[in-house]
Amino acid sequence: DWRRDAAGLSALAGHAGNKTLGAAFLEVKRQNKVRLAALVRRELGVVIDPASLFDVHIKRIHEYKRQLLNLLHVVARYQAIVADPAAVDIPRTVVFAGKAASSYHTAKLIVQLMHDVARVVNSDTRVGDKLKVIFLPNYSVSLAEVILPAANLSEQISTAGTEASGTGNMKFALNGAITIGTWDGANIEMAQAMGEDNMFVFGLRADAVARIKALGYDSRLHVEENGPLRAVLDAIGSGEFSPGEP
Question: Which among 2, 9, 77, 98 is placed 20 to 30 Å from 233, CA to CA?
Fold first, then answer.
């Protein structure tokens, strides 16, 4: 069970300071990132820098899995770079993949927005290699075998209380990705096994989500109080990423 696995993780933690092992691990990670970069160039014609931080979000496309929230963050980062290129010092490649149910109209629109944002961001010379956005189509086990080992950051940000992650988070972690995750589902078990300080705990806990739903959630209030969020929504709503189709 996971308690036995936790003991194993604790034993492995003793090797964390081994510089030779660390260097070997980083070389394996680099090779896997080069392999993914080659696949992206071959399939999409987009050149990404293997030395950038690979920020990966691969799940079924669904509102509660919050690919849209991640995409809003991408737009905010894009706007920050355009405003001040020196403000962002770590280049980032954001990778999305996953399937949407054929009848799920909103999920399809989220995928369309991913492509719209990627087209603008990836072609903006002011941004260069500081930010790239990739959507890999036809998600499959074979594609996951290339993406998972290349990830630096694992996005496990589904709304708490909706089973934020099943086993995908563990596959990322076992391949050396750092997890940003809501306190829910298997994220909790993984954090307990490896120590909360080894995971970026994200967002509200399930009880807080339930309280907000009970009291009533006013999204407009958040927009009014948050300038960067308002700028992101205005850019999307005005058609900045979809000229002629705001």
Answer: 98
Task: Give mean pLDDT, residues 222-242.
Answer: 96
Q: Which amino acid is at 4?
A: R
CA quadruple 124, 232, 241, 73: dihedral sign: positive
Q: How many residues does the chain have?
A: 246
Report the candidate in 150, 153, 156, 5 with the shortest Cα–Cα distance to residue 67: 156
pTM: 0.91
Q: What is the pLDDT of residue 2?
A: 46
pLDDT of residue 194: 87
- Strands of the 200-201 sheet, one edge to the other: 131-136, 92-97, 53-58, 153-156, 178-181, 200-201
12-38: average pLDDT: 89
Quickly list DSSP for 162-211: S---SSHHHHHHHTTPEEEE-SSHHHHHHHHHH-GGGSEE-S--HHHHHH
Calculate the CA 231 to chain-centre distance. 21
pLDDT tens-digit series, residues 79-91: 999 999 888 889 9
**Res 10 pLDDT > 70:** no
The pLDDT value given to residue 8:
56
Beta-bridge partner residues of 55? 94, 153
Average pLDDT over residues 213-217: 90
Residue 239: count other Cβ atoms within 10 Å of its Cβ. 12
